[in-house]
Amino acid sequence: MQKQLLYIFMLLCAASACKKDDTNPAPLVVYTIEVEGNQVSFNNTTTGATSWKWDFGDGTGSTEQSPVHTYQGKGKYVPTLYATSAAGVTAEGSTVIRISKTSPVKLTDNSLADWDTISQNVITAGPAGGVFKKVKFDYDGQFVYFYGEMSGKLADGAIFDVYIDSDNSAATGLITSLFTGAAYDVLLEGQLLLNQNTAPIPMAMYYHNGPQTSFSFDQQSGTDFFTMGTIAEAGGVIRFEGKLDRSKIKGFTGAAIRLGMVATSNDWSTQLGTIPDEGAAAFLLNMPE
User: Fold this and answer.
1) Domain for residue 107, yes or no?
2) What does the UniProt keyword field contain (predicted)?
């Protein structure tokens, strides 16, 4: 779930407060906003005011000092605070809020139940899926969330290779028969389900370079491109969730990506499965909102 914190510092005079008045100064308009999904919390720390009027930019308003408001739809809104002093001098301050698609997925709730509500962007493993059973995706303005089910044990330390056509363009990236219909700009590789501080092969990010027919990738610095949530093992089945930071991966901020996933044994000797099936088209994840 995306959570955004913005700091606003403004002093915009209304018509009655635009002249210098040392006796009756205009209020100093200061407030912060915190955006979580469609809900916005306004924390008003304006000084020199005794009353407040909010215009939320959607046809509604409030006279509370620090209101909480829920916007009914996605879009751009311009909320404005009108702060008035005891002498009747008014100042105003505005900002821009963008409400985008939100996700019900929470990685900090120690549960995978929120994935039960996700019915779109689901891949069910085919005949060549091997250890893979199912993969789901969701997204918001900041992250792509993923959920997986596979057979095996966490102690097996399977190595994951995630091929991503991050710009959804066949003109850039590796062209391979592994997953067709895409050209892969980004490769994420490592033991995804192990503790990254102790994993023999921690997750790393690579960007393709060179000819499109050449398997040539440069490793990138940093590991903050992904975060894991709940990982559960029971009855020979592993269920896991995580998220990819769209701002940390090249080309990941567009309206669509294509991707495929491969699992390999921890000694690289055996391919355990692919999703989608090897040779099938890469999965298209549309993110228009």
Assistant:
1) no
2) Signal
Split into its structural domains, the chain has a count of 2
Residue 233 pLDDT level (bands cut at 50, 70, 90): very high
Please state which of the ranges 71-80, 155-164, 274-283 shows the lowest mean pLDDT: 71-80
Is 15 a residue whose pLDDT tops 70?
no
84 and 140 co-located in one domain: no
Least confident residue range of 100-104, 118-122, 246-250, 284-288: 100-104
Q: What is this structure's pTM?
A: 0.73
Same structural domain, 86 and 120: no
Range of the domain at 156: 113-286
Write down which residue in 77, 99, 121 finishes a domain.
99
Domain at 45, CATH number: 2.60.40.10
CATH number at residue 121: 2.60.40
pLDDT band at 21 (very low <50, low <70, confident <90, very high): low
